[in-house]
Amino acid sequence: MELLFLAHRVPFPPDRGDRIRSYHILRHLAARARIHLVAFSEGAGEVAPPELAGLASVTLIPRTRSQAVAALAALAKGLPVSLTAFASAGMRRAVAARRADAVYCFSGQMAQYLPAGVPAVMDFVDVDSAKFAGFAEQGSPPMRWMMRREARLLGAFERRVAARVDASLFVSAAEAALFREGGATGRIVPVENGIDAAAFAPAAVTDVAAEGALLVFTGQMDYRPNVEAVRWFAQDVLPALRRRYPTLRLAIVGRAPTAAVQALASPAVIVTGAVADVRPWLAAATVCVAPLRLARGIQNKVLEAMAMARPVVATAAAAEGIDHAGTLRVADDADAQVAAIAALLDDPAQATGLGAAARARVIERYDWTARLAPLDALLGL
Question: What are phi and psi of 320, to 5 degrees?
């Protein structure tokens, strides 16, 4: 089978949430079909790793349109910014040049390029329109208006796409249910994220040298929900913990920290920026934290921490969609976060046991091969 794989971002290396999912799906499909990858590129040097060297073809289209230009175009044309930001004549030509028996389209921004008359699976991952609806509850009035507009227009587009493709995929049953509740029709299927438990294993790496207790948050640090999470945690949770544990530190581990994130750096807060490998930081964590206020789907950062046998304290939003069977500590407000983390810091045996149970749960429930098996039938492989 000749399969066209469309992606809004080059699906390698698997070093951020969307790339982790797209990389593993691409690798799964490449073992079963001839894959023609067509994706947007964000910089030079993006070369397929050896395990993906067998792709039939790779076409990368530079994406250079700024968010400001995309917003102006969206307002002029009555379209969602999410679509105009990824509008490209070059991408349209690249897709038209590839003949395929079926299409796997990753991320809603790429649905505008779905060729007519070809069987297609649309991987929305999350309900992006719901994310913008959540953003609309915050910020200044002009920004709230823009976010409400984006949620409305993007939601209508998502529903039109779902009605024409063979299947719409989401990262969790909760996201799939949310999409249906919003009026979407067609075949809507949850295909969950997995974890490479062999790579994310305590024995696989040496931890970073850390003195004293260390809390660790990982993520792309120019992504708004991550930025808001660490700012809230550093301002509302960490000070109360530091009064009880004066040497406790928080490590914010992830590329592209915004100015607001960099401003958090202090003797109590480490801001690493990009790291070659997050695993040594996870291995060094006394407790991993995921204090997201707004989250969609399954959080890879949480699965990775669980696989590394770390105790995790997460908000309900960050834990939603993960079948953790009680191996996470869920705490939403600042007082609950302080209490949950303090309980683990005070009882190392409990923390170790919780981490071991979390890793066992990941191995049992979140193996990539099992998670992606439904794709074979959906694509007729």
Answer: -60, 135
